[in-house]
Amino acid sequence: MAISSSISAERDAARAADDWWGEVRAVLAKDIRSELRTKSALGTILIFSLTVMVLVSITVVTTGLGFTQGIAESLTERERERAGGTVLVGQDTRARATLLATLYWIILYFSAMAGLPRVFVKEEEMRTGPALRLAARPSAVYTGKLAFNLGLLLAVSLVLLLPFLLFFTPHVESWPLLLAYVVTGSLAMAGAATLLGAIVARASNQGYLMAVLGFGPLLPVLVFAINGTTAALYPTSGNYLVALVSYLVVMITVSGLLFERVWSD
Amino acid sequence: MQHPAKTAGLSAWKWVLGPWMAIVTGLAYFWAQPLENGFQEPEAARIIFWHVPMAMLGLAWFWAGAVYALKLLFGKRRDDPKLDAKVRYTSEIGLLCTILATITGSVFARVQWGMFWNWDPKQVSIVVLILVYLAYFALRLSVEDPQKRARLSAVYAILGAVATPFLMYVIPQLPQIKVLHPDTVIVGGLDAKWRTIYWMSTLGFVGTTMWLFQLRLRLQDLEEGLESMAARAGALAGPQIRVEAVRNPAREG
User: Fold this and answer.
1) Reduced to 3 states, what is the DSSP secondary structure of residue A66?
2) Angle at B198 between CA B68 and CA B9, to 5 degrees
């Protein structure tokens, strides 16, 4: 009797541990599937970020930092005359690199604030929250939704990089470094914003609340990512990757520990 | 309901703190000699006695709130509304300290560097701390249910506390970021007189803020006592008469 009950207890424990990954996969798959169907989060983030990127590109040109030296030099005499002798020329200066890096990350930040909470807010809106609470463990729900948000923001940040490079043609000093900062920065941002999204989903007045709550915890990401991207565009010293990664690890761990208290009733 | 011993205990604070802070103020302005080194206006260096302790306390009370928040979420007295009140009061006091630190710092910045505000990293940190505090209160206002409010705001307090090392220490230390603020080790470089007054001032402000905290807790106790008294009176008076304690609606949340 004792032997068989301990064996079945072991089997139950093994099944439970095995189920955790299954639960995570199930939550992630469900979110991906529903996202592909409605495109609510992806649509929000992409449309917002692309619109603002275009808007910003139009206005930045007027500051003279839109064009680069190379473009101005390649204008023919006739084009120069037509421009009336004055052509707005921007040097590939540190100022330009800083400006462009800042714009990229601020656009991504506000897009993230608009779109990342969707993964939790839609559970409350569609009233599927209680069912999910019954179906999966809080840690599995957190991990699944975290994976979804990480993937989402990573994809958006890479997609946003294309119009960024297209509209501004920045001088990129180091492509690997640029990609490294874009990837780690977006992962860090999504990692910290997931728990914040869960908090906001359980409150009312969610529209402005996410940006308000997000500012404090996410400012380090912005500072590190902006400075790092500047260093990738224009050669400056300063390695922020370590800071970003340590921030990412700390935030995800702490969020994981706190999530259950936000999620459970 | 009103414990005589508690009342006596609380008023004892003011007899200690009042004279203490008066002594500190006197010493700060009459005993300490103005610092010539590195200060535009040597007299203005006295700001060290007020501004620095306030800034430290603004951060310290935030962490104290995070400790109470941890107790509320994971401790033995889970979801105890008294703990929620404690988290809220520590945040109120911390916000007050941080605002005072910002104002005193801004005045000093005008004297020392000619501008009220430069967005120097330490200034950035202090403003961000204020915004995190305000975000905490914004979150509290957005949740109706008291237990949910307690939990969600406690989680946010902890998240904010985890972010503070990055905000307060890592960002200002980054070599690429221009630093106007005097190096923090300046306190170690001060002469004995200044150091004494500085530590006396810090002690005084710690005491004052702790006293504020106790007073606030006592006020909450009294209000709850009033409500329960009203409830009992209502029960005695019978169903025809309605008795209620009039709570200050501004105090809720």
Assistant:
1) coil
2) 50
- Residue B83 lies in domain: 16-216
pLDDT in tens, B2-33: 555 456 577 788 888 989 999 988 888 888 77
Number of Cβ within 10 Å of residue B57's Cβ equals: 24
Closest CB to B135 among A216, A236, A243: A216
CATH number for the domain harbouring residue B125: 1.20.120
CA A143 to chain centre: 16
CA atoms within a 13 Å half-sphere pointing along the CA-CB vector of A163: 20
Closest CA to B186 of B47, B12, B22: B47
Assigned domain for B10 exists: no
**What is d(CA B135, CA B153) in angstroms, rounded to the nearest whole number?**
10
In this prediction, residue B186 has a pLDDT band, given cuts at 50, 70 and 90, of very low
Asked whether residue B112 carries a pLDDT value surpassing 50, the answer given is yes
When scoring A113, A202, A210, A239 by the number of chain B Cβ atoms within 10 A, the one with the most, hence best to mutate, is: A202
Taking CA atoms, A197 is separated from B29, B35, B248, in Å, by 50, 50, 32
Tell whether the torsion through CA atoms of B212, B216, B221 and B222 is positive or negative: positive
CB contact under 8 A, A199 and B176: no
Taking one residue from A and the other from B, the number of pairs with CB-CB distance under 8 angstroms is 90
H and E: helices and strands count for chain A: 11, 0
Q: Give the closest residue to A184 by CA, choosing from A158, A210, A209.
A: A158
Mutation target to probe the B interface, by most B beta carbons within 10 A, among A199, A209, A245, A254 is A199
Q: Residue B128: its chain A contacts at CB < 8 A? A: 215-216, 219
Residues of chain A with pLDDT under 70: 1-18, 61-92, 205
The answer to whether residue B243 sits within a structural domain is: no
Could you tell me if A120 and A156 are in contact, meaning their C-beta atoms sit under 8 angstroms apart? Answer: no
Digit-coded pLDDT (tens) for A166-207: 888 888 888 999 999 999 999 999 999 999 999 999 998 677
B6 in a structural domain: no
pLDDT (average), residues B28-49: 78
> Number of structural domains, chain B?
1
Instruction: Give the C-alpha distances (Å, rounded to integers) separating B199 from A31, B3, B54, B213.
Output: 56, 34, 12, 21
Query: Which of B128, B143, B159 is closest, CB to CB, to A219?
Result: B128
B246 within a domain of the structure (yes/no)? no
Q: Is the pTM of this model over 0.90?
A: no
Q: How many CB atoms lie within 10 A of CB A42?
A: 17
